[in-house]
């Protein structure tokens, strides 16, 4: 029995040492990530990409450029977990900016917007967009430019507030009836763990293995801006909540098929 106890003690010590090493590595990654995020944020702020607007308990980032007195106000709506639309939409929106006002809003947990644990229902997301535009003094009607799941929010927006919408130009966007938005789910433990891991900086060492570089039409500076925006938010608590609700949308689509 004494030999077995000694073996278990040795194993226990080894496991404890490994645990301490892991915790130290996580702490180092967390500190390094915070320092790098702060530097990246300063660079993005110099390019006027950081314009926080309060929508209640958190701020959304509202980036605008182009013709302030333009014929139309075009509002970009990101696809799921796309935190860099202020960069990736530019090949299209730059061609429209001379005659129109271009507005890119990072929803909660995206890009330079604050994260939140508030449930990200479609109603909340759309109302956040509307509130951010109102507080920023950007008047409608708007031409919505949604990508992927952003089409869901654009469809809901137009269905419930048609006077605010001049038109919608879908970029491979999902189009659904508002009936597909019923029901809510709380964020799960695994999702919280993933979001916490990203905030701890664990995403940064594996970033390029997860996210491919932008196509060659983008400049090196735009690539760096895209990387910084994505690393700033990573996989957030808000995106986790939004993603779980996407499962409801998938089930609704299956019923329509």
The succession of helices and strands, N to C, reads HEEEHHEHEHEHHHH
Distance between the amino and carboxyl termini: 64 Å
Largest sheet: 6 strands, mixed
Report the C-alpha radius of gyration, rounded: 21 Å
Shape: elongated
Provide the low-confidence segments as ranges.
Answer: 178-187
Which keywords apply here?
single chain, 6-stranded mixed β-sheet
What does this protein structure show overall?
With 257 residues, the protein is an alpha/beta fold. The protein is built from 9 helices and 6 strands, in the order αβββααβαβαβαααα. Strands 1-2-4-3-5-6 form a 6-stranded mixed β-sheet. Helix 5 (150-160) links the parallel strand 5 (142-146) and strand 6 (165-168). The longest helix is centred in the N-terminal third of the chain and has 45 residues, at 2-46. The termini are far apart.
In short:
With 257 residues, the chain is an alpha/beta fold.
List the helices and strands and how they pair.
Layout: H1 2-46, E1 52-54, E2 59-66, E3 72-77, H2 85-88, H3 90-93, E4 100-106, H4 122-135, E5 142-146, H5 150-160, E6 165-168, H6 189-199, H7 207-210, H8 220-233, H9 237-256
Parallel strand pairs: 3-4, 3-5, 5-6
Antiparallel strand pairs: 1-2, 2-4
